[in-house]
Design goal:
Length: about 80
């Protein structure tokens, strides 16, 4: 995986991916959130998001219940990386 996502809870059984994105100002943060919203709407998939003035925390869980993170999840995470 070539992006900045952290596997949780363990690298050998990844149940979700986390990433924190830092921004210089609120305007940049808001622009990213707008791009992320548009992307998620087109994909029909919605990660957990929390944010402050200059950061966004994203938690991406596997689609299936009790499923581990797979190739499609890594591809979705990589696509989010492209929005930063």
């Amino acid at each position: 995986m070539d992006h900045q996502w952290n596997p949780r809870p363990k690298p050998d059984r990844v149940e979700w991916l986390e990433r924190r994105v830092e921004f210089e100002d609120y305007a940049s943060n808001r622009a990213f959130l707008d791009r992320l919203n548009d992307f998620c709407e087109t994909q029909g998939r919605y990660p957990d998001i929390s944010f402050g003035r200059t950061y966004v925390n994203i938690t991406l869980r596997a689609e299936g219940e009790e499923a581990a993170i797979g190739e499609a999840d890594h591809a979705f995470a990589a696509a989010i990386d492209g929005l930063v």
